[in-house]
Design brief:
GO terms for molecular function: ATP binding; lipid-A 4'-kinase activity. InterPro entries: LpxK, P-loop_NTPase. Pathway: Glycolipid biosynthesis; lipid IV(A) biosynthesis; lipid IV(A) from (3R)-3-hydroxytetradecanoyl-[acyl-carrier-protein] and UDP-N-acetyl-alpha-D-glucosamine: step 6/6. By secondary structure, this protein is of the alpha/beta class. It has two domains: 2-68 and 133-220 and 315-331, Rossmann fold (3-Layer(aba) Sandwich); 223-310. Helices cover 32% and strands 21% of the residues. The strands form three sheets. Strands 3-4-2-5-1-6-7-8-15 form a nine-stranded mixed β-sheet, sandwiched between helices. Helix 5 packs across helix 10 (292-298). The longest helix has 19 residues, at 9-27. The radius of gyration is 20 Å and the shape is globular.
């Protein structure tokens, strides 16, 4: 597979050049980016998948929801519906996408919507909810038709964009120079004890601009596992099957191993569509643990008493109080 990717190197160069021309046309206003009379934050990445966008969106919601009227807008990846749709807790993940449904379940008080056309989605949100003063665009760093007030770029500690190359040889959606559009760069999924010296090393590698802020974040795993009706301590939860359909399950696997958990791991691709054969196989397992993103897709298809998920959250390591103050000063 890696050898095949290298054979496709000329296509990577071609794709990168196309994206560079596209960005140039937006930068010179040949292609127009639309602004809106409301604060908009774009969260995205240069790499495909697995950088922790959903936990970062949830961190932003937690940080700002008590003072502001917030909506999230996603495309609703792999959903069966089309156009603009406001997400409700009763929706199926197949109708709205797993991540938007997760946002609505975790924060029922905010507005959550999906629309692949971001301009239309924003217009619909403003029409239906004129009280909104902030919209969070999920996975929108390359969506240049909307001009955000603030762009947050995520890159994973174990897979920095400076170590990657363009699709299809690598996993970059555009050349590394695209990072210059970001106001904030956040290195995600860092070890909780990331040393200052290591932070400095990464900063030298990423080379953020003078006006760009570089932050480091880590994932915090709950001490409990849960489902719709049950709540158990992770310490006493053992002899289970871990089921993942996310881009990078390694941090979760490592966390469970660090706790000396006894489990088998069944790994599917990111946003995997569980087949009848998959479900029959999983149904035979006595106890299942998964991520919340996978849980919202599996909960209606498996016996509820055997399926649990482990909640997670993102924590900023280097300047814990910086993000809230920065966002308030920049946007409101």
């Amino acid at each position: 597979m890696n050898f095949l990717r290298y054979l496709l190197f000329p296509f990577s160069v071609l794709y990168g050049c196309i994206m560079s021309v596209r960005n140039f046309l937006y930068r010179t206003n040949v292609f127009q980016s639309r602004s809106y009379p409301i604060s908009i934050i774009s969260v995205g990445n240069l790499n495909t998948g697995g950088t922790g966008k959903s936990p970062m969106i949830e961190l932003l919601v937690k940080t700002l929801k008590d003072k502001h009227q917030i909506a999230t807008l996603s495309r609703g990846y792999k959903r069966t519906t089309e156009g603009f749709l406001e997400v409700q807790p009763y929706h199926l993940s197949s109708e709205v996408g797993d991540e938007p449904l997760q946002f609505k379940i975790n924060f029922p008080e905010i507005t959550v919507a999906v629309d692949a056309n971001r301009q239309r989605g924003i217009s619909e949100l403003l029409k239906k909810h004129p009280q909104l003063d902030l919209i969070l665009l999920d996975d929108a760093f390359q969506h240049r038709k909307v001009k955000p007030n603030l762009s947050i770029l995520l890159t994973t500690y174990g897979d920095l964009y400076t170590k990657d190359f363009m699709l299809p040889t690598g996993n970059l959606r555009e050349f590394q120079t695209g990072a210059s559009r970001a106001d904030v760069i956040i290195v995600t999924k860092c070890p909780g004890n990331l040393a200052v010296e290591e932070q400095s090393r990464i900063k030298k590698q990423l080379k953020p601009g003078v006006t760009q802020k570089l932050l480091f974040s880590t994932i915090l795993y709950s001490e409990f596992v849960k489902n719709a009706t049950e709540h158990e301590k992770l310490a006493g939860f053992d002899d289970f099957t871990l089921v993942t359909g996310i881009a990078n399950p390694k941090p979760l696997v490592n966390h469970l191993k660090s706790l000396d958990k006894n489990f088998e791991h069944i790994q599917f691709a990111d946003h995997h569509e569980f087949s009848e054969a998959d479900l029959k196989m999983l149904q035979k397992k006595p106890k299942l643990l998964t991520t919340q993103k996978d849980y919202v897709r599996l909960k209606s298809k498996l016996e509820s008493g055997k399926l649990f998920y482990i909640p997670i959250e993102t924590q900023i390591l280097n300047e814990p109080g910086f993000l809230e103050k920065y966002l308030e000063d920049r946007l409101f």
